[in-house]
Amino acid sequence: MVVERDRSNELYDLFSRMRQRQPQPATTTAVAPGLHSSSDVQTFNRFAKEFSTNIATVSEYIMRLTQLTNQQSVFDDQTAEVSELTQIVKTSLQRLHNDAGTLEELKRRAMTSQKNTAPTSTGHLRTAEKHSDTVVETLRSRLARTGQQFRTTLQHQSKSLKDKANRRHMFTTADRPQTFESALFQDQEQHQQQQQLLAGTGNIQYYQQRADAVMEIEAAVQEVGELFNDFTRLVQEQEEVVLRIDTDVGDAVRHVNAGSNELMRYLTNLSSNRGLILKVFAMLFFFLMFFGLIVVR
């Protein structure tokens, strides 16, 4: 006989220890070559670092929320803490969504300031711009994954609440035993009816609380869905920008190839003209030599 054992808590504890051991990734806070002097660039780097830290904090909240959702049972109600964490994560995601637009604006300011003030080469500017785009895209991807994780947790929480409510209903509304029509059991039946009436009142309050919690979770899922729609729109805009950049790069490559062909053609013409000039001078030289020999004789 196989005995099942829920070891989810051990897995989450292992993940927590591994997260504490691992250092913070440097991809979101590293400074690209040439990004040293401008205050706008420093502001962008500092804001990107804070943005990354906030995403990590929200991820920890979501992990804690998932643990509470898995630990809840009919006899261990942690609705208050779950609701508080849900509200915190929802507010944090909304703030991060707004900060994503601010991060994009800071990136544009940093690049404009870098082009206007820094005496760097074109290659360094392109490297800095590519680095900034990579930072923004990485942070947006992390934010989207965090939102998807929160949405999955909310859906699991809603399903768990409904299942627990059904189990509680099964435990508290079991069929009563048949009573005999006799005076001996009339008092007992009346007492059971009173107890069931009191239990029914408590169940109604419990179900009302469960229904309110489910409605809050569904509202949170809907808000997270709206955030995902905004994320999709932003990603689509970034894709259009990348396509335009790719098109411009392709046009530039074609222009470079055309210029190279024209230069080769001009070089060929110069080579052919040089040969013609040498031939003319050779003919003049032989003519002068021939004419000089005739005059001397």
From TrEMBL:
Residues 111-124 have a biased composition (Polar residues). Gene3D superfamilies: 1.20.58.70. The keyword Nucleotide-binding does not apply. Its main location: membrane. The chain crosses the membrane at residues 276-296. Residues 110-133 are annotated as: Disordered. Residues 204-266 form the T-SNARE coiled-coil homology domain. The keyword Coiled coil applies. It is found in: Membrane. GO terms for cellular component: Golgi membrane; SNARE complex. Pfam families: SNARE. GO terms for molecular function: SNAP receptor activity; SNARE binding. One of its GO terms (biological process) is intracellular protein transport. Keywords: Coiled coil, Membrane, Transmembrane, Transmembrane helix, Transport. It is a single-pass type IV membrane protein. Belongs to the syntaxin family. This is Putative Syntaxin 5. It comes from Leptomonas pyrrhocoris (Firebug parasite).
